[in-house]
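Table S2 (continued). Query chain:
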Amino acid sequence: MKTISLNSSKLAVGMAALVACAAAHAAADDVASLYGPQPPADASYLRVLNASSQAVWVALAGSEAPQTLAPGAVTRFSVLTQGTAVRVIVGGKVLTDAAAPADAAARPGDAVTVALRHDAKGWHATRIVGRYERADGLKATLRAFNFAPGCGARIGVDGNGPTVFAQVAAGAQDTRTINPVSAKLVGQCGAVASAALPLPALAAGDSYSVFVTGDAAKPVLSGTRDALAWPPAAN
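Corresponding output:
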């Protein structure tokens, strides 16, 4: 009887160990599914906004696949390994702007948003450089980018609602956290307001960007959820 009791105890201990091990693996899997595969710590990030009125085919350096962008559309953030040039190709041509040469590499942690415009002379690029930061897990994160020349943009809730961003200078960006909310935003250049932009339902931990484009006489407000092109698609 004692032998049976001893073996039963060993079996119980063994089963408990297996259960604990399985629970640990399950917890690890939960964490992995929550955060997903993460880019390298020294990566930088690049995305493109089509601020023109026509579709455009673009190829970005990094992890995002080449694609056709409709007017107002935005790519995901392409992940660039350290030393990779912040390069955008449109119609087979590498675009440059006054802010950086074509072979310039971003600093680790930089997040570069490039807006494309088109006129009689072809395609032009304007970039705004910020830092890539994790979203607040308890609130929603709202980022504002002002690509409208000559406009100190105010962004607020439609219908004379509260101000969300009091002043975003042309060529600059700003970031703030907000409580998850449904609202319509407008961008203003002086007394001239854009059409209203309905925000999607944002939950805690979500990150969303709004873009002021056009110009001071006719501002346009658009937006997108912030998303990473990671892990890279298999070839």
